[in-house]
């Protein structure tokens, strides 16, 4: 389908059959006028992006205002402006400020950790997972020891532990994992991290920590506080809706944090600092984001149930389901209908990862996927 005919398909879907699916209340019918102004959801008039696990409701009004004010300091280097944000993060996480390293999105944190600790040895991780650390470290000469996910599509902690050797410099955990969305049992992760971090640094990627539905699920920050060789990464890209603004942070004991901060490349910027400070204060938007992600997941899984397609229990802002179709083909078919969905995650080539868009976007997606797979 050409660009023009794709656009007209979307238009038709959005304002024709799609709108019908949304009910008589219209495109933004589920939001009050006040909410629309506050969260400014984009009109559904272009390609619908359900492929990168973004939060389509961000940035919130308070974050936008903070960035606008930040323009006044656009002529200044950001170093002098980091302190307040670091203080806020240290209070939130309950660690001293020398445990925090600000990074331009947690991807930068993953990359610098890969080259800080992986050099001259190997990193062990499971596959599939989020690749940034491993693909970057490989370019710098680090070997990657890949362990397949186990039969339940969980990180295979037993097998990782077996493979740890004198060559192992770091172990990468992603919990909840991308692309599965699954969460490991808390006691198993804690035991694993305590044991393995005595032999190699353990990196815990907690990009989706805020979406975890299990009450009191521990962050590995608790083990950082106890002095273990563990690095935790967090991001402002997901629940806070700032993926395009680029802000994340690492948490580690000061000896490790110093090694990491010495290797930061991109660094932060004034807009990202101001937006992130506002994000930490905007409790309403935080709750709203989680609520909307849960509503969207319920709609996605309802359709998957109707289609009788299995899916995994998600503690994130996306759903991973067994489409039974080759993902490259499905990517193309859905793109032609105006939707970007998740990329292939080998060897799970007949699985598909779909992110939570706005409620309106998800309804349109559900309609299209039903036509394609139903
Ligand atoms: C597990 C995981 N870690 C890190 C990231 C990167 O996030 P950031 O925008 O902070 O670089 C993502 C993005 O999708 C992710 O899924």
UniProtKB/TrEMBL annotation:
Cross-referenced PROSITE patterns: TAT
Domain Aminotransferase class I/classII large: 47-363
EC number: 2.6.1.9
InterPro entries per record: Aminotransferase_I/II_large, HistidinolP_aminotransfase, PyrdxlP-dep_Trfase, PyrdxlP-dep_Trfase_major, PyrdxlP-dep_Trfase_small, TAT_signal
Pathway: Amino-acid biosynthesis; L-histidine biosynthesis; L-histidine from 5-phospho-alpha-D-ribose 1-diphosphate: step 7/9
GO MF entries: transaminase activity
Coiled coil region boundaries: none
Pfam families for the chain: Aminotran_1_2 (PF00155)
Reactions performed catalytically: L-histidinol phosphate + 2-oxoglutarate = 3-(imidazol-4-yl)-2-oxopropyl phosphate + L-glutamate
Keyword annotations from UniProtKB, A to Z: Amino-acid biosynthesis, Aminotransferase, Histidine biosynthesis, Pyridoxal phosphate, Transferase
Family membership noted in the UniProt record: Belongs to the class-II pyridoxal-phosphate-dependent aminotransferase family. Histidinol-phosphate aminotransferase subfamily.
Name this polypeptide is given: histidinol-phosphate transaminase
């Amino acid at each position: 389908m050409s660009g023009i005919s794709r656009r007209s398909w979307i238009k038709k879907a959005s304002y024709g059959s799609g709108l019908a699916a949304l009910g008589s209340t219209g495109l933004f019918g589920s939001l009050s006028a006040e909410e629309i102004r506050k969260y400014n959801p984009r009109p559904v008039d272009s390609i619908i992006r359900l492929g990168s696990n973004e939060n389509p409701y961000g940035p919130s009004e308070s974050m936008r205002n903070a960035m606008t004010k930040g323009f006044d300091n656009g002529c200044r280097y950001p170093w002098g402006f980091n302190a307040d944000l670091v203080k806020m993060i240290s209070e939130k996480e309950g660690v001293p400020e020398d445990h925090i390293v600000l990074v331009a999105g947690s991807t930068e944190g993953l990359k610098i950790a890969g080259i800080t600790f992986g050099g001259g040895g190997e990193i062990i991780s499971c596959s599939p997972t989020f690749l940034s650390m491993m693909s970057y470290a490989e370019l710098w000469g680090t070997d990657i020891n890949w362990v397949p996910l186990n039969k339940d599509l969980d990180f295979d902690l037993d097998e990782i532990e077996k493979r740890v050797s004198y060559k192992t410099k770091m172990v990468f955990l992603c919990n909840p994992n991308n692309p599965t969305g699954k969460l490991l049992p808390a006691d198993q992760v804690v035991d694993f991290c305590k044991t393995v971090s005595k032999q190699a640094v353990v990196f815990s990627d907690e990009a989706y920590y805020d979406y975890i539905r299990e009450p009191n699920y521990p962050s590995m920050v608790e083990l950082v506080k106890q002095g273990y060789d563990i690095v935790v990464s967090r991001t402002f890209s997901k629940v806070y809706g700032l993926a395009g603004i680029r802000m994340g942070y690492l948490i580690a004991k000061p000896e490790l944090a110093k090694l990491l901060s010495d290797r930061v490349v991109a660094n932060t910027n004034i807009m990202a600092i101001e937006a992130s400070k506002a994000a930490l204060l905007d409790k309403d938007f935080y709750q709203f984001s989680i609520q909307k992600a849960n509503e969207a997941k319920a709609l996605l899984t309802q359709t998957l149930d109707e289609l009788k397609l299995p899916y995994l229990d998600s503690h994130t802002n996306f759903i991973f389901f067994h489409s039974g179709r080759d993902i490259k083909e499905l990517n193309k078919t859905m793109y032609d209908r105006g939707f970007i969905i998740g990329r292939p995650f080998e060897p799970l080539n007949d699985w598909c990862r779909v992110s939570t868009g706005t409620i309106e976007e998800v309804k349109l997606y559900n309609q299209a996927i039903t036509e394609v797979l139903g």
